[in-house]
């Protein structure tokens, strides 16, 4: 039934439609109930006929809205074009609440196309309109999608704020589960596995089952649950979920779901070392995402295919998929830069606006007398603006604090370079001058001692410069690691052999314990060597004379663990809170007065993140410290 222009909708109809919409976020945000799916072709034909017969803009809006629901899970370009038409008719019909909702459609569609800048623009407009015109749960949906967008832009603090806002606003468990899953992803990407697993347990609790049977109305929950298990290394659990829901996903033939399921199967096969099967599943997944024109997961599929072909030494295909991945990934980097710039501009504009408004009010108070009632009103307005100004100034102060922190880092950097380079450089220059002036009269033993000091000083300078270069690459995203199968046993033996002379100087015994048949790991060889060199070097620095440093390699479930254990002083709780931060030095001093710049563990943490690995630390005062690094099996 069509509705005339300006005709108000029954409140019950509007609320029912919005509640139904609310229960279908994010990718099933716009899907229909599984028991009432009608042939898509028939539905589109019916809607096109209805559109031809529509005689007002309100009716045309609702027809386009229904068409959007049909397109979104199969063809995002058609869905986007339909949403744009819906927005036009909502504006013509002055449907203010529907205008806000349609900006949500646009923002969500741009999000799954990985057009993050356009997604932010439309969602920001939508959340402002929904806050002005209501209802509140539309604003929560905007917050949810903004949270996902900022998560993909790696702006984790902002993403977490929006997701927590959505979580607090959703009223039923099905809806609450959605931001919970995204909060799991936030913590996984930040390396906080413990918190991530707690969110994952909460997400699982929201999937209702009876007698262990798959609840077909929660297919998306199962699909992303299998993907979540892969992210935390629980491949067996992931495979169980995939086996249970694959028949349902195939039955309902949703490209989005089938794409994610095949991508998960690929990662399971990769973990087992079956690269050919992994490639087959990845290509199937990529095909589904290309058919849907869904760039969000195309990026993941292309990255995985590049890694898989590289693992087979088929570098031509690996580069082909890598180049496609980089092309899509560039959109993310541009959007992130734009988002940061827009937020800073917004804060500065708002501060200037408040200052301007305060100036106008002060001028009025000085220039004219006004009635007492108006004075009271202006006083109330002044107080409100002062509070608003205070909040904005506080935000500005936080930005200034961040600038000050960056400046401190710069000054610290200059101080470290000037101090730690000057000392060994002075030693080299002084000894070199002595050798030049009295080379022929210098006894051989003294020459040998001078040469040793010059070599040690040079190595200190080389180590500091290497650390600085590594940090520059890390912070500018230029590490360019090549992840490939690597023999753990060989690397452990090579590192221990090349570095044990540092321990020998203090009488430290180096012990190697590597399990037989230890499998290869997926890592970058240079980065792995850099990680182990830093950990072993630290163990020697903080170990007592005549103690033991143990380097071991073991299998831990689906991962391989390399441990470096010393018998040093151990760490306090304050020391542990400083770990992995730039320029931080621990309270315990190296036992042989060795130099430390406080950069090694910062580099280790970032390299482990780049290699999809995990680093753990166990320490007890007066009993030593153990660093553990875990890698996925090849």
Explained architecture:
It is a single chain. With 634 residues, this protein is of the alpha+beta class. The chain folds into 4 domains: 1-206, Serine Threonine Protein Phosphatase 5, Tetratricopeptide repeat, CATH 1.25.40.10; 215-368, Serine Threonine Protein Phosphatase 5, Tetratricopeptide repeat; 422-475; 484-632, Heat Shock Protein 90, CATH 3.30.565.10. The protein has 22 helices and 7 strands. The chain has helices at 11-22, 40-53, 57-71, 76-92, 96-112, 116-133, 136-152, 156-169, 173-189, 193-205, 219-231, 235-252, 255-272, 275-292, 295-311, 315-367, 372-438, 444-475, 488-504, 525-541, 573-578, 600-610; strands at residues 484-486, 509-514, 521-523, 548-556, 559-565, 614-620, 624-632. The strands form 2 sheets. Strands 2-4-5-7-6 form a 5-stranded mixed sheet, with helices on one face. Helix 4 (76-92) packs antiparallel against helix 5. The longest helix is centred in the middle third of the chain and has 67 residues, at 372-438. The protein is globular. The model is unreliable at 1-37 (pLDDT under 50).
